[in-house]
Structure formats: structure tokens, C-alpha cells
Amino acid sequence: MKLIAIVIFLLMYVLLLVFPPKRAYIALSAAAIFVILGILPVQDVFMTVNWNVILMITGSMGVVSLFIDSQMPEVMADKIIRKMPNVKWAILSLAFFAGIISAFVDNVATVLMVAPIAVTIAKKLEISPVPSVIAIAVSSNLQGAATLVGDTTSILLGGYANMDFLDFFFFQGKPCLFWICEIAAIVATLVLYVVLRKYKQPMKDVIDTKYNDIVPTFMLVGMILLLILASFIPNKIGITNGLICVGMFAFGLIRRYIITKDINLVTKALKDIDYFTLALLAGIFIVIGGITEAGVIEDFAKIFVKLSSGNLFLAYTLILWASVVLSAFIDNIPYVATMLPVVGGVATMMGVDPYVLYFGLVSGATLGGNLTPIGASANIAGLGILRKEGYQPSTAEFMKIGVPFTLSAVIVGYVLIWLIWS
């Protein structure tokens, strides 16, 4: 069964990369095969789906739909168009802005908030929004490891290593992941500047847009603040962040109906949710649960122990770079959850402080998702936005931005983590 699970898994990912318009159907079909063959028990299917992520995306999409309808993204786009000298600088500013937000808010929510502004700018300038949305997605993924609340992998690290919010800034008297991620972000942004050097189209004069409702903007800001505050709640339920986002969307729907008495406007907001992207993520979660159940990830973890025994630098290098490669194709949440105790065991066998290995694992797993369009939930969400706008970027088009951005950031993190924590 283990070999069959690997074959199905690899075939699914090849098809996902080759046939972007059919990704949701491919993932759900692979998930169904895992269940039909008995690799993943039927009773475990529900638990393998990360409902916190699904609910958070659903709620965020809904709130963003209300945000877009308020025309506030157009107002913000007008201001950016006036401030930036050309398209290149507009993309860079949005990507860097998204990265800063993503250090404190889940990457997917960040993409869903910032990408509509980029799409609006592209419409006003009559250019493709593809480069800007991809840049926003990869920048969001980069900063996910910066704080305890930036990404689920950081939350897993904090729980396993007993690190709190402030420990991500300074830990054991040393600069920690926040500062490493910020330096990596600066270097990666410079690389992005080179990649986007041909986007020199000047900004146009635009007529100021007026927003029609300020409340959705406050809802977005409120959602961000609640997600940050929730990170300090001890022993909270696993879907807390998802409930916050869905709850905020529900509030927006109720408010809209009370004000307008028009059920069609409520229906429109529900239709704006990208169910295709939600189905794709659910399918991938089930497949990852299947290969975990089959013992594939556990077997891979044992390989690390065998290959790196006795050499800390080799162990660190293998763990970080293997995490980068694997996270380009598998969800990093079950991978990190599986590898944290393995990494701790490697450190114990070597008699060394485990944190250099922990940080290498999390940074590699978080950044590796940027190598492919399906390597991270934020990428899938960004591509979902583009698909709704009628754009279907190829895998090569995504990797043209994602690969140099990721490799530059990973190399910086690889060097800094070793120098500071070895």
C-alpha cells in the first residue's frame, strides 16, 4: 500500500502542475482513490482536512468580497498609482506590504486582503495582474515564519519548543526568526526588483474613486487584530482563527441585509467565495493525510536520522534544504508536525541544542512552498483570485518569480540561522 500511495501522490502532483484549470477535480479524485483503496480510513477523512484553514479562507474571502464591493480597494489603488513612479515599484510596494502584514496574520488571509488592490491597479492601468499577485503570494509566505502568529508552522514550533510570541524576536539572548526573516525579505525584494525590471510602464492619471461603505475596511482591520489577539489565548480550540473569519463575514452579511433588505446582495457575497480553491485545498489535505497514514512521511523522517547522525552542520543542511524541496510539493503542516519530534531526537542523539535544527526545519518548510504554485495555501488562494479574473498563469510563469525569490531568501536564512544559532 505504501508504494501505491507514493505513486498516486506523485501522479496527482504531476497532473496538478500540468493541468491548472482541473486542479480541484484532480485533487479530489486522488483523495477519493486513497479512500476507496483503504489507504486512508473513511472515518479519518474528516479529521485530515485542516478545517481552520478552510474556514479562515472562506471567511476571509467573504469579508474581502464586501471590502471590494465598498470600492475601498479602488481608493487605495488610486493612492498607490499616484505615489509610485511605475508598475515595478507598485508591485514591489504591495509585495513588501503584504509581507509585513503576513508576519502577524495568516498568509492566506493576507493574500486575500492585498491581492484585490493589485488586481484593481492592473485593471486601471490595463495590464496583467499576474506578476503582482504572484509577488504578493510569495512575499506573504516568506514572512510567515517571522512570528508565532504568521503561519501554522510557526504555531507548531512555538507549541513544541515552548516559545511564546516575544521569543520569535529574541530568544536565549539572540536575534530570532523575526529578524532573520526581515533580512531575508529585504534581499528577496531586491531580487524581485531585478526579476520585475522590465515592468517600467508609467502610472496613469486616474480619477479619484469614492468608497461607498467604510465598515468593511474596519471589518478587515478588526479581523487582523482579533487573529493577533487569539494567538495569546492558551488552549484555544483548533478552529479559532477560522471561526473569527467566518464570524466576521457573517456579521457583514447580516449587516448588509439589515441595511439593504436585498437578499440578492447577500447571495452575491456568498457566490464570490472561490469554492474551486476550497475544494482543491480539501483534496490536498486528504491526500497528505493518506500518505501520512501509509507511513511515507515517517519513513522519510527516519532517513534524516540515519544520514545526519554525528554531524550537526550536515544535519542542519539536510533538514533545511530537504524541507524546502518537499514543501514545494506537500503541505508543510503535517510535515513540520511529523519532523519536529524527529529533529528533537536527532539533537538529543548528538547532544546539541536543538534550536538550530528547529529553525532550519521551519524556515525551509515555510519558504519551500514558494517554489511551485501548489506548494502553499497562499499561492493557491492567489491563483484562485487570478482565475476568477480570467487569468490562468502557467507553472513556468509562477516559478519565474517564485524560484529566484525563494532561493535568495532561503540562502540568507540558511546562513544567518547557522551563524547565530550553531
Give a verbal description of the structure:
- By secondary structure, the chain is mostly helical.
- The chain has one domain.
- The chain is 73% helix and 1% strand.
- It has helices at 2-18, 23-36, 45-48, 51-69, 72-83, 87-102, 107-125, 130-142, 152-161, 177-195, 215-230, 240-260, 263-271, 275-293, 296-308, 312-327, 332-350, 355-368, 377-388, 395-421; strands spanning 170-171, 174-175.
- It has a two-stranded antiparallel ribbon.
- The longest helix has 27 residues, at 395-421.
- The protein is globular.
- The model has no long low-confidence stretch (mean pLDDT 83).
Ranges where pLDDT stays below 50 over 5 or more residues in a row are none
Helical run tally: 20
Strand element count: 2
Number of domains: 1
* Main sheet attributes: strand count, strand direction, barrel closure: 2 strands, antiparallel
Give me the secondary-structure category.
mainly alpha
**In one word, what is the shape?**
globular
Proportion of residues in β-strands: under 5%
Order of helical and strand elements: HHHHHHHHHEEHHHHHHHHHHH
Helix content: over 70%
Tell me the radius of gyration.
21 Å
The chain-level mean pLDDT equals 83
Distance between the termini: 40 Å
Strand order of the largest sheet: 1-2
In short:
With 422 residues, the protein is mainly alpha-helical. It has one domain (46-421).
Features of the shown structure:
422 residues, mainly alpha, 73% helix, globular, 20 helices, two-stranded antiparallel sheet, 2 strands
